[in-house]
Write a structure and sequence with these properties.
about 40% helix, single chain, alpha/beta, 9 helices
Amino acid sequence: MKHLKFLVVALFVLMTSGIKAQTENVVIDGDHGKLQAVIHKPALKQGERVPMVVLCHGFMGNMQSGLLTKIAELLQAQGIASIRFDFNGHGQSEGRFQDMTVLNEIVDAKKVIEYVSALPYVGSIGIAGHSQGGVVAAMTAGELGGDKIKAVALLAPAAVLRDDAIRGSTMGATYDPFNPGEYVELFRGLKLGAEYIRTAFSMPIYETSAGYNGPAIIIHGTGDRVVPYTYGERFHQIWPTSKLQILDRADHGFSQQIEQVATSTAEFLSQALLQSK
């Protein structure tokens, strides 16, 4: 009922104001070339500053994710800006997928944060990510700390990627983790670079993420066959003041719960960021 009320209020704001979601396409210098991005922002009064949320998509995904787009729309309705972007080697951004690693995606995320921090209407900053984007969001928040990042949302965070690399099995493709060759063939013609595997093998995901000490929510499903929900629970353990939401039978992409997850995420970020505005 609480989530439904939030959604109704958000829609009411849009309908009564007569204002549609305002979007702006921007290009940002990333770690491996130009990053394509879309900014959603509410109607602003002259000199007004609003919170900004950086939205991070997952492995082999892109910024057109229905879940991230829905979160952006709900945030905009609550007076909060957001930015969706394609990581290097994904979507419309430059770079080869083969050269992508979690570490250079963290650099991408930091460059996006740097870009939006310089916008005159941006106040506090939050970050949210799904799957591998959740790992990027968590580690970025851990490196930058709560002084810079005021709220975090992790959606099915894929910390399993380190264990996958150690086992030599990523998205169904198997390999020798000690000698993977130049790349590993994935489906859709994509190639997973050896550097991704080498860096993932020893990546201090939770140790780095522990550097963050601000408000956070973790949402994960018990039906996630890609990333078991216990990996989400571990983030809750290292962030003891975080909110953990386990959804019964929800899959990795929350295919049957997109509205619920988007609403929970937007509601949490709105409350946390407006308090720190």
